[in-house]
Amino acid sequence: MLKKRVYVADDDPAILEIITMILEDEGYEVETSVDGRSLQDELTIQPDLVLLDIRMSGSDGGEICRKLKSNVRTRAIPIILVSANKDIVSIANNCFANDFLPKPFEISDLIQLTHKYTS
What is the pLDDT of residues 38-82, one digit of tens each? Predict the structure, then answer.
């Protein structure tokens, strides 16, 4: 059985490392980026789920989300915004994200949301 693929974009290497370890322990294949541009520009993999930080160095996760959701090739990919931004709910709604996970987050919440959108 093929592993589900999760793409994670966050400009904090520690967050990327933690999320990668957690999701790999759950059996997922994880690809990471510090800015989300590879997902937006190249789509190196067709992920089953995208976890996307809102504010990254040189990138706007909300704008990346909006572009992915407006592209016929990528609109069906579930996107979860992961951010400490106090306006995360509004931003998620405005860019048509499927869900959001406020930072700091509980590991169990990350796992639950990931399973919800990849099952």
Answer: 666 655 568 999 999 998 877 889 999 999 999 888 899 999 999
- Tell me how far CA of residue 109 lies from CA of 46, 58, 102, 105, 112, in angstroms: 24, 28, 10, 7, 5
Rounded to whole angstroms, how far apart are CA atoms 11 and 20? 14
Residue 48 tokens, joined: 């089953």
Return the top range by mean pLDDT from 25-29, 30-34, 59-63: 25-29
CATH architecture of 5-118: 3-Layer(aba) Sandwich (3.40)
Q: Token pair of 90, please? A: 């509004």
Q: Which residues contact 86 (CB under 8 A, 6 or more apart)?
A: none
Residue among 87, 90, 88, 80 nearest 110 (CA): 80
The pTM assigned to this predicted structure is: 0.93
Kindly state the helix (H) or strand (E) to which residue 100 belongs, with its residue range. Answer: strand 99-102
Burial code (b: 16+ CB inside 10 Å, e: under 16) for 49-64 equals bbbbbbebeebbbbeb
